[in-house]
Amino acid sequence: MFIRLSAAIAALSLLGSAALAQGAKPTDPQIAHIAYTAGVLDINAAKQAITKASNKDVKAFAQDMVRDHEAVNKQALDLVKKLKVTPEDNDTSKTLSKQAADKLAELNKLKGAEYDKAYVANEVAYHKAVNGALETQLIPSASNAELKSLLQTGLKIFQGHQQHAEQVAAKLK
Amino acid sequence: MRSGRCLPFLAVLLGATVLPAHAATIQITIDNLVFAPAEVTAKVGDTIEWINKDVFAHTATARNGDFDVTTPPKKTVTSVLKKAGSVEYYCRYHPNMKAVLTIAP
C-alpha cells in the first residue's frame, strides 16, 4: 500500500515538476488525458478484481468502480469532443500507466484474502493520490470552465470511492 | 341561502379529504452527488420520489437499516415510508453523500 501510494504520488507530482520545468501549468489537453488515464487504470484494476476477488464486498466495490469510472470517462469524452480538444499524452499519464501495469502484475500473483486486502488497500491509496492531484494540480490548472466543473464532479465521486474503499478495507480486518 | 346549502357538501368534502389523512409525495433530488433538500420532514405513509439527475447510480441507505433504495442513473424511484424516526441516510457507493429524513408517525 505504501509503496503504491508513494509511487502514485511520485507519478502525479511529476506533473508539478514537468510544469515547473516548462515554466507553465499543465494544459487542458494534458489535464484531460491524465484524468481519463487515471480512470482507465482504475477500471483495469477493477476488472482484474472482478475475476480474482473472493470477498463479495470487494467484488461489489470493483463493479462500482467500473460503472462509475466508465460514466465519468464517457462524460470526459463527450466534453473533449464538444470542446474540440484532443487529449494530449504526457509524462504523468505515461508514468501512471507504467506503475499501474506493474501493480496489476504484482496483484495478479496474489490469491484469496491476501489479494482482496491488497487490492482494496491499493484502491484507498490510488484514490487518495488522484484526489490530491485533482485538488492541488489539475483543478486549479484547468482553464476551461466545463473541464474544471467535470474535474470537480470527478473529485466528489473519487472522494466517495476513497471512503467506500476505506470502509471495505476496515471490514476485511 | 346558497352558502347555507353548500355547507353540508363542504363538510362531506372536508371529511373525505381530511379524515383519511392523504399521504403526500415528497421529492428528493440527487444532483451532482448532493441530496436536496438535505433535511426533509415527512410522515409514515408518505411517498418519496428519489430523482437521480446524475449519470451515476446512487443509493439512499438508512444508517439504521430502515430503508435502502437504489437509484439508477437519470431515473426516478419511489419508496413509501414505513417507520417513524429521524433517519440519517447516505449513498453506499459514495459515502460522502449524506442527508436526513425525519419521519413523523
UniProtKB/TrEMBL annotation, chain A:
Pfam families named in the record: DUF4142
Domain of life according to the entry: Bacteria
Signal peptide limits: 1-21
UniProt domain DUF4142: residue ranges: 27-167
Keywords: Signal
Keyword Signal: yes
InterPro entries: DUF4142 (IPR025419), Ferritin-like (IPR012347)
Protein name per UniProt: DUF4142 domain-containing protein
Annotated source species: Bradyrhizobium lablabi
UniProtKB/TrEMBL annotation, chain B:
Position of the signal peptide: 1-23
Lineage: Bacteria, Pseudomonadati, Pseudomonadota, Alphaproteobacteria, Hyphomicrobiales
One of the Pfam families matching this protein, by short name: Cupredoxin_1
Domain EfeO-type cupredoxin-like, first and last residues per copy: 12-103
InterPro entries: Cupredoxin (IPR008972), EfeO_Cupredoxin (IPR028096), ET_Amicyanin (IPR052721)
Organism of this sequence: Bradyrhizobium lablabi
Assigned keywords, A-Z: Signal
Protein name: Amicyanin
